Amino acid sequence: MSIRPLDGVRVLELGNYIAAPTAGRILGDFGAEVIKVERPKAGDELRNWRLYGGDTSMLFRTVNRNKKSITLDLRSEQGRDIVLDLVRHCDVLLENFRPGMLEKWGLGPDALNAVNPKLVITRISAYGQTGPLARRPGFAAVAEAVGGLRELVGDPDRPPVRVGVSIGDSIAGIYAAFGTVMALFQRERAAGEPVALAERVMDVALSESILSVMESLVPDYLAYGITRERVGGRMEGIAPSNAYPCADGSSVIIGGNGDAIFQRYMTVIERPDLAADPDLRDNAGRWRHRERLDAAIAEWTKVRTRAEALAVLEDAGIPCGPIYTAADIVADEQYRARDMIQPFSVDVGEPEPKVVGFPGIVPVIGAASLPIRSVGPDLGEHTREVLSELLGMSETAIDAVGTA
User: Fold this and answer.
1) Is 390 exposed, middle or buried (0-12, 13-18, 19+ CB in 10 A)?
2) Among 29, 44, 91, 169, which one carries the catalytic annotation?
3) Which residue, of 322, 339, 359, is where some domain finishes?
């Protein structure tokens, strides 16, 4: 039987897009029952993002796996009352609306606490629930800019660019999941004693989530007056570490920035002169000479295929790896050995369902990923099940709600 540490935890997710649903996905991955509330008819807008066929995108199926979907109109009195009834049976409520929206609907923390004084409330927003910018809207793209990440991504002679995924949403979702489990642990440790509402509200800001992974960006500025700049494929102050072209048109990543590793690295690429150069004995010197080093390394890689270069580097213990495409990931034996690509039959808009691989559950408990129980559900797939089994509503009462 699979280990699921969050078995018995019930989560009500009022989230859309990626941030709160990512938190719900992580909790669901490890056993929590996650009930996702979506708008009638339209549902979560993520259902249509990158939709290449069918009526539900693989992005939605991925982010909302291991969940149940019900449809309710949160703006209606009836929808609000049902949410409050559901909250009585839940341990956690997740949401990522603009601050003040839940309060406007009569579903703010005080109202939720009144029906369930043990509820953990995890809120995700652009700037947090307090402060002068709290009510300002903002997606992950804005948060990545305000948090300092966007300024560092790209080449120095071009405008900043964005990484290829909604990294701000995903990082915030991870923090939200951690905060939720932390609050549940605190509640458990209280052994039945009440935990103040303020201590059960987790306030996650997209902008702050990005800032938190920016390493010493701010301390370096305040301590030394250093303003970090874009350095392309490199990492500021670390060399040699970059992507290098190969003879077959692919590229490899090589990280040879450790002092001892650098010596072996230069021997491998047949440049003993660089290994012996006193200006390159430490990382600071190598960073100053990064252009010269990268040029020498590229001269070596560009006359070898990716496989040839990696074989030599790996044999010498030099940290390196291929730059994978989706096809490479699917074929990779390491991912396969740890069940990190799990197959499900899904509708892709063709006459018959298609078997599609979905990324596995992280972190691994044991030797391989826990099994994904289900991919993201169809819109409202579990409305009748949840409202009848959890709230005891009749078929007639469910029909009267107008959830479809």
Assistant:
1) middle
2) 169
3) 322
pTM of the model: 0.93
- CATH code of the domain covering residue 196: 3.40.50.10540
404 pLDDT exceeds 80? Answer: no
Domain carrying residue 277: 241-245+251-322
- Residue 270 region, left (φ>0) first, then alpha (ψ -120 to 50), else beta? left
What is the distance between the alpha carbons of residues 321 and 313, in angstroms, rounded to a whole number? 9
Q: Is residue 228 part of a domain?
A: no
- Domain count within the chain: 2
pLDDT confidence of residue 3: 80
Residue 376: how many CA atoms within 13 Å on its side-chain side?
A: 29
Q: How confident is the model at residue 2 (pLDDT cuts 50, 70, 90)?
A: low
256 and 397 together in one domain: no
Q: Which two tokens stand for residue 10?
A: 């019930």
Both 39 and 117 in one domain: the answer is yes
169 as an active site residue: the answer is: yes
Q: In the chain, pLDDT over 90 holds for what percent of residues?
A: 95
Q: Which candidate, 119, 27, 7, 16, places its Cα nearest to that of 67?
A: 27
How far is residue 61's CA from residue 375's CA, in Å, rounded to a whole number?
5
Calpha distance 111→102 (Å, rounded): 10
